[in-house]
From TrEMBL:
Signal peptide (UniProt feature, chain positions): none
Protein name as annotated: persulfide dioxygenase
E.C. no: 1.13.11.18
Location in the cell: Mitochondrion
Family matches, as Gene3D superfamilies: Ribonuclease Z/Hydroxyacylglutathione hydrolase-like
Family: Belongs to the metallo-beta-lactamase superfamily. Glyoxalase II family.
BP-aspect Gene Ontology terms: glutathione metabolic process; hydrogen sulfide metabolic process
Keywords: Acetylation, Dioxygenase, Iron, Metal-binding, Mitochondrion, Oxidoreductase, Transit peptide
Reactions this protein catalyses: S-sulfanylglutathione + O2 + H2O = sulfite + glutathione + 2 H(+)
Domain Metallo-beta-lactamase: 61-230
Recorded GO MF terms: metal ion binding; sulfur dioxygenase activity
Length: 293
């Protein structure tokens, strides 16, 4: 029986490369059993490592993401796009779960809310603020395309996705089998679910955003989960394949996309004049540790 399986075993290691003939071969009941065993093993080895929470700040409709490697003795954790107003909620959760916050990261210099990274640094000694070098913002760590940010055995890879702002990046979980599967892409405001970030300030460019999304995000496996920085429509998560098929802006050709983006006629974010200068110094970057705020 083992010999019988061995003809197909390589298919189980490369599930995204299947032809229709190979897919049919995997429908054999014995093969299906093996597939299930592999996926159970795969999910227990990868997802049991990762603790993941999606958190929401309702005034700015911002998502904050908490990721931790709970298989590591320290349970190291990071936050993506924390908001100043919800820092205490986030820290309560981190403490309740016994995690050690290591990184407070941003996908870009936000225009609609003040980042929580500065406050987090004052409340949790040792936390490092992280942003792209291209953002021009102040922080403890500056990222460039291809860099990796690790917590325990889990890592995020940095992809440059400018266009909404000049320094926007997308953080993507690793592709190896020991990393969480399916992959997860934290797209900031580059891709929103069924939408995308505006391109009319902070060095925005619709031409550049289109190129960024098509070269850096839509080239990821179709089952990659999309977790954006905002949602205004009641969505929580999408996939690369779903957005490639149904995104009303990004499915168009580039010229149509540019025309859509130059006719959005959106009001400027209410907090832009406060948020951008504050976020250029990572919120409250220079406050001393554990200041009484
Ligand atoms: N009404 C909000 C701001 C809404 C807004 O402009 N959102 C940005 C992302 S935050 S920089 C955006 O890119 N929106 C795209 C869209 O299609 O809505 C406020 O006043 O704060
Ligand atoms: Fe933004």
């Amino acid at each position: 029986m083992v010999t019988h399986f061995s003809r197909f075993q390589h298919l189980l290691l490369q599930p995204r490369l299947l032809s229709s003939h190979q897919s049919r071969a995997l429908q054999h009941p014995l093969i299906r059993t093996l597939t299930v065993i592999r996926s159970v093993m795969g999910s227990s080895s990868s997802s049991s490592k990762l603790l993941f929470r999606q958190l929401f700040e309702k005034e700015s409709s911002t998502f904050t993401y908490l990721l931790a490697d709970v298989s590591h003795p320290d349970k190291p954790a990071l936050l993506i796009d924390p908001v100043d107003k919800t820092v205490d909620r986030d820290l309560k959760l981190i403490n309740e779960l016994g995690l050690k916050l290591v990184y407070a990261m941003n996908t870009h210099v936000h225009a609609d809310h003040v980042t929580g990274t500065g406050l987090l640094k004052t409340k949790v000694p040792g936390v490092k603020s992280v942003i792209s070098k291209a953002s021009g913002s102040k922080a403890d760590m500056f990222l460039e395309p291809g860099d990796r940010v690790s917590i325990g055995d889990i890592y995020l890879e940095v992809r440059a996705t400018p266009g909404h702002t000049a320094g926007c990046v997308t953080y993507v979980t690793g592709e190896e089998a020991d990393q969480p599967q399916p992959r997860m892409a934290f797209t900031g405001d580059a891709v929103l679910i069924r939408g995308c970030g505006r391109t009319d300030f902070q060095g925005g460019s619709s031409d550049q955003l289109y190129e960024s999304v098509h070269s850096q995000i839509f080239t990821l496996p179709k089952d990659t989960l999309i977790y954006p920085a905002h949602d205004y429509k009641g969505y929580e998560v999408s996939t690369v394949g779903e957005e490639m098929q149904h995104n009303p802006r990004l499915t168009k050709d580039k010229e149509t996309f540019k025309s859509i983006m130059s006719n959005l006629n959106l009001a400027y974010p209410k907090m832009i004049d406060v948020a951008v200068p504050a976020n250029m110094v990572c919120g409250l970057q220079d406050l001393p540790p554990q200041a009484n705020l």
